[in-house]
UniProtKB/TrEMBL annotation:
<feature type="transmembrane region" description="Helical">
    <location>
        <begin position="12"/>
        <end position="38"/>
    </location>
</feature>
<dbReference type="InterPro" id="IPR002123">
    <property type="entry name" value="Plipid/glycerol_acylTrfase"/>
</dbReference>
<dbReference type="GO" id="GO:0016746">
    <property type="term" value="F:acyltransferase activity"/>
</dbReference>
<keyword id="KW-0012">Acyltransferase</keyword>
<keyword id="KW-0812">Transmembrane</keyword>
<keyword id="KW-0808">Transferase</keyword>
<feature type="domain" description="Phospholipid/glycerol acyltransferase">
    <location>
        <begin position="129"/>
        <end position="279"/>
    </location>
</feature>
<dbReference type="Pfam" id="PF01553">
    <property type="entry name" value="Acyltransferase"/>
</dbReference>
<keyword id="KW-1133">Transmembrane helix</keyword>
<feature type="transmembrane region" description="Helical">
    <location>
        <begin position="58"/>
        <end position="82"/>
    </location>
</feature>
<keyword id="KW-0472">Membrane</keyword>
<protein>
    <submittedName>
        <fullName>1-acyl-sn-glycerol-3-phosphate acyltransferase</fullName>
    </submittedName>
</protein>
Amino acid sequence: MLPPRWARRVVLAPLVVALAVLMVPTTLMFAIVVGGVLTWVVPGGLRALRLLWMAAFYVVWDATALLAMFGLWLAAGCGLFTDRPWYRRAHVRLARGMLALFFWQVRWTLRLRIQLDLPSPGTLPDAPVVVLSRHAGPGDSFIIVDRLLGLSGRAPAIVLKDTMQWDPAIDVLLNRLPSAFVTPASRRPTGRPGARETVHRIAAGLTVDDALVLFPEGGNITPRRRAERIEALRRAGHETLARQAEDMTEVMAPHVGGFDAAMEGSPDAAVLVVAHTGLERLVTVRDVWRELPMDKTITMRAWLHPAGAVPTAQDARETWLFDQWRTIDDWVVRQSLSA
């Protein structure tokens, strides 16, 4: 169970900072630094050192973000002026810088390369943006947010599972941006809003400086999830969509609920559909360990749909969403064949 908010702020966050302070001057940290350098010089091995180095880096990275956000909280009069525009802009700039640092380290240690085919900042409309992304592989939400921050400095609004709040930096940062954490229905207290209601609320508050990020598949693709989603479509009487889902081999059938709520909350929003490939085979911890060093290329492609391009009727909107997912599936197949 997720600890209450006060415990995460008073206990968990200070523990991460203390751990980072203790790690920096120790011999262990020195060994990790040496191992990290060797990782860069000697390709193809040193899995344990790579993993240890990334774990240590992440702790220090998390602690640095927490200290920076604590400083911003103090600058805002110990929380009295958190509603000021500069406060949110400062957190967007902080997120941009921290993610740039994170991906610099990922490229260096794990040998990941990211190739982008995304709209340039000048082509984005003067309107809110709803981003629909394929969910495949570890860290794809980090990559999407990093790219959004590079697109005219759009502030990312994300709806995530509440368990992501175990990470103190993510917990504090996203609770200060137009994002939200939702509890699965199986353990959601009575009266607490679900994902659809939360998405609608956030979408209704989007500005031209924001981008709402959704993952309509709801998780990484697995044979069980894929089969369950197809069966759910059939039980709901959507035989045509179920057959489309069976034909899509690289993606799962998307859920329309969150997307529908986003468009109802922000009907003037443009839609950016994002596909990416490179890490989809990394599902379990064993997969990640086996692939270290990853030495992979993540390729991203996006299709921009202007405001008004999405149908307003729910059935037509679901069909439109499935068409976009079929486009993603075709693109991923072509990428696999050309690799």
